[in-house]
Design a protein that fits this description.
This protein is mainly α. It is 74% helix and 0% strand. It is built from twelve helices and no strands. Helix 2 runs antiparallel to helix 6.
Length: 266
């Protein structure tokens, strides 16, 4: 004959499960607060590192301070979490064991009544999930670690360097403007040189080297080459465009030869 487990065994199991459930819920509440504080501290530390060049130790200190403040708030919230009742724990044990309320009766009723309804079903062993705040807390700690591990601003962008750069003032601005002007002139010169090379090609002249005025004048006498050269000439009041405008002028060939020869020499 198999004896039924005593009702006290179900009662002890229900009380133990109720304590574990209460401890898990309150730990989760405390971890939620600590996670929120640590994450906020990590974000503040990251902002300080980027904007003010703060050190890794400073970011860790900020994260720790905010984390302690969050933990304090979480502990206060944990105190407000109601305790799990033994009845609720007994009902959960009964469902897990599939005892059809015999375990619930054994845990809550008197010894005599419990022995009658408990039967042969023992209270089950229950494994609980980790506290709900564990995952957010882990993520917040990882975030704080990443902020602390970040190498920070390069050596050339420290606060002293930035202050010295600001001290240059209008001089630095003038240097930037001058550099932009020179770059624009270089681009324009390259554009004119390319156009002059196209004029040489249109007139059938060599791509490089000095040119003879007589040779240039002979090419200008050809209407087709003259028209092609005018289309290829650089826009604006350039020497090439002026020479091509009056090709019958005796000085036009010499002027065009000098202009195109200067490009070929470059």
């Amino acid at each position: 004959m198999t004896l039924s487990p005593p009702p006290a065994e179900w009662s002890r199991a229900a009380i133990a499960l109720a304590r574990r459930a209460t401890r898990r819920a309150r730990t989760g509440a405390a971890l939620h607060g600590a996670a929120a504080g640590t994450a906020l501290g990590a974000l503040v530390g990251a902002a300080l590192r980027v904007a003010a060049g703060a050190s890794a130790e400073a970011s860790v200190a900020v994260s720790g301070t905010f984390g302690l403040a969050g933990l304090w708030a979480g502990l206060r919230a944990a105190r407000r979490v109601p305790a799990t009742s033994a009845g609720a724990a007994a009902w959960a044990l009964d469902r897990v064991a599939g005892a059809h309320e015999r375990g619930l009766t054994a845990a809550l009723a008197t010894d005599a009544a419990g022995a009658t309804y408990a039967g042969t079903v023992p209270p089950p062993r229950v494994r609980m999930h980790p506290p709900r705040g564990l995952a957010p807390m882990t993520a917040a700690v990882l975030l704080a670690g990443l902020v602390a591990a970040w190498p920070g601003q390069p050596a050339g962008s420290t606060r002293e360097t930035r202050t010295a750069s600001r001290g240059l003032g209008a001089g630095a601005g003038a240097a930037v403007v001058e550099a932009g002007r020179r770059e624009a002139e270089a681009i324009a010169a390259e554009r004119d040189a390319a156009a002059q090379r196209k004029v040489r090609e249109a007139l059938g002249l060599p791509a490089i080297g000095a040119l003879e005025p007589d040779d240039v004048a002979a090419r200008l006498a050809d209407p087709k080459r003259l028209e092609a050269a005018r289309l290829a000439a650089p826009p604006g009041a350039s020497a090439v465009a002026a020479a091509l405008a009056s090709p019958t002028d005796a000085a036009a060939a010499s002027s065009l030869a000098r202009a195109l020869s200067s490009d070929g020499a470059d």
